[in-house]
Amino acid sequence: MGVTFNFTMNLQKVGTIKVLLFSTFVASIRWFLTSIITNAYMFLPLQLLHGLIFIVLYYSMAVYINEEVPKELKTSGQTINNLIGMGIARITGSLVGGFLSDIYGIKSMFLYNSILAFITVLIFAYIFSAMKRRSTSESFFNQEEL
Question: What pLDDT, in 10s, does the model give residues 36-58?
């Protein structure tokens, strides 16, 4: 309870979007390092990041949905997030990822995932930045009309 409360306070201070982008960026670094590491002892500490990244992403996404989705659709938003994140993504990711790993090799797949995650961070950073600029300019124009 105390850890969740502390994390929630920090999440509010830093911002949900920044935490989502940062944790996805850390995931891309983790996957990149996993693709190049050959020593099992170096791989083990990287695995500790997985738990942290997963928890931060999962919790932050739930908070983001709770903040952004209208009240009457919050339950549906959380359901869709869990359906996609815990259901569809895991099933298709396991099947397609296993198939592609057989073709290209596991190290290549970690490298490709790293690149994909990094590109995703760039795209969403641009989208969120554009949304922020748009809302800032709209609020400026709305105040100007008063």
Answer: 998 888 888 888 888 778 888 88
Alpha-carbon distances, residue 125 vs 10, 85, 134 (angstroms) = 20, 20, 14
Q: Any idea which residue has 């057989």 for tokens?
A: 102
pLDDT tens-digit map of 98-139: 999 999 999 999 999 999 999 999 999 999 999 888 877 665
DSSP string over 105-130: -HHHHHHHHHHHHHHHHHHHHHHHHH
Local structure of 14: helix, strand or coil = helix
Q: Do residues 77 and 65 lie in contact, with contact meaning Cβ atoms separated by under 8 Å? A: yes
Residue at token pair 């908070």: 63
Beta carbons of 114 and 35 less than 8 angstroms apart: yes
Q: Is 73 within 8 Å of 81 (Cβ atoms)?
A: no
